[in-house]
Structure formats: structure tokens, C-alpha cells
Amino acid sequence: MNGIFHLAFKVKDIKSTILFYHNILGCSLGRQTDNWVDFNFFGHQISAHVSKNISELDYCGKVEGLKVPIPHFGCILEPEDFKTIKSRLEKSDIPFLVPPQTRYKNNRGEQQTMFVLDPSNNALEFKSFSNAEAIFD
Q: Averaged over 89-113, what is the pLDDT?
């Protein structure tokens, strides 16, 4: 168990959270109570905790002239997994905050990216790099 990331974040309720992360994204369920639920988020542990104080997003991030919400979290996926998640989101009528697109085209850091909001207004970004060696460049 080396290098598994853990993230705890706020959600408005457990039911809509399970629907989004488990049923739509395909994340397996972990432990849960009436107030929190764990998911296997592409090999990492995320813990959704119910809160009545959900923070507003700030679109202060700028990437290639595009404003992106901060904070956000997500996952870097293999190209086929990126396509699968994109398809699941589209079939579930989840609107894209930033539609699927290619950033840094024809550069070492070329990547597919898309942003969505979960039911609690948490921003998620999914990426897929053309060259995995460029992830940290």
C-alpha cells in the first residue's frame, strides 16, 4: 500500500453522492455511515462527509486562457478509461463545466481534459495524457 492518496471533502447528502460516484463514475463503495462514505476513486480513497456549509467555487484558475474552478480534484486516466468516464457522464446527462477537449495540442504535455460538478458542487477534473512521462513536466 504505497502512495495511495486520501481526500476528505464536503457533500450535501449521502444519497446523491453515492449515485454520482458509485453509479455514474463506477467507484466502488467503502465504509459508510449516515454522515460519510468512502469510495475507491481510481485506486485512491476519497471520503465524502455531509456538511451544511458547502463552499462556493472560485474560478480563479487560468489554464490556456480557460477559467477553471478552484478547488477541484480528479484523476489522471488512461485514454480508454477517460473515454469510458466521458461516456458515463454523457449518458447520465451530467453537464460538463468544461467540455472534453485537448489542451497543449502537439506539445509534450498534450492532454485530454474535462470538468464536471458533483451534486454537491465539488468540481472534478479528469485528464488523460498523450505522453504519461510528461505528467510532471
A: 94
